[in-house]
Amino acid sequence: MAMPSSIETQQQEVSGEDDNETYSFASQLVLGTCLPMALQTACELGILEIIAKAGPGAKLSATDIAAQLPTKNQGAPIIVDRIARLFASHNVLCCSVVGLERHYSLSPVSYYFIPNEDAVSLAPVMALNQDIVSLVVWCQLKYAVLEGGIAFNRVHGAHAFEYPGLDARFNQVFNTAMLN
């Protein structure tokens, strides 16, 4: 009888409660881009600021939030609710149910993405990391390993610190992030 491979042995060692925890972590790795992209969207739309402007301890429904967005999309409350539920599952927002409706309030983490009295927040740094200029670089990482070179240079034809001089829009994103 053949001995099990080390991979089979390792897979057999993960069971029960550990298996659920490990699977949950693996799922987080697979979906790792979803939360930052949703947070970027929320910052661009001002969703967290809408809740903050409602006052300390305010709890708003997705419909309340969507009503303050510059949109005529009747489906906006549904999408806002999905984003807010994602945030609540990661403690970015708090969620309470009133009747059949979810209401969202700020969590301590939320405040890091809302400009403070000095107009400083982590939102511009996140915008830099979530910008298409930054994201497409990761698609070249494999080729940088296999073929050599620096992934950023491969994609953009310039060093990361030279590129902002070639792209005025990205230069603004970069400089705003550095100020924060």
Automatic annotation (TrEMBL):
> Any idea where the O-methyltransferase dimerisation domain is?
28-114
Q: Tell me, what is an example of a GO biological process annotation in this record? A: methylation
Spell out the InterPro entries in the cross-references: COMT-like, COMT_dimerisation, SAM-dependent_MTases_sf, WH-like_DNA-bd_sf, WH_DNA-bd_sf
Q: Which residue stretches, if any, does this entry annotate as coiled coil?
A: none
This protein's record includes keyword S-adenosyl-L-methionine: yes
Q: Which UniProt keywords apply?
A: Methyltransferase, S-adenosyl-L-methionine, Transferase
Recorded GO MF terms: methyltransferase activity; protein dimerization activity
Note whether ATP-binding occurs among the keywords.
Answer: no
The protein here is known as O-methyltransferase dimerisation domain-containing protein
Organism in which the protein naturally occurs:
Gossypium stocksii
- Recall the taxonomic lineage recorded for the source organism: Eukaryota, Viridiplantae, Streptophyta, Embryophyta, Tracheophyta
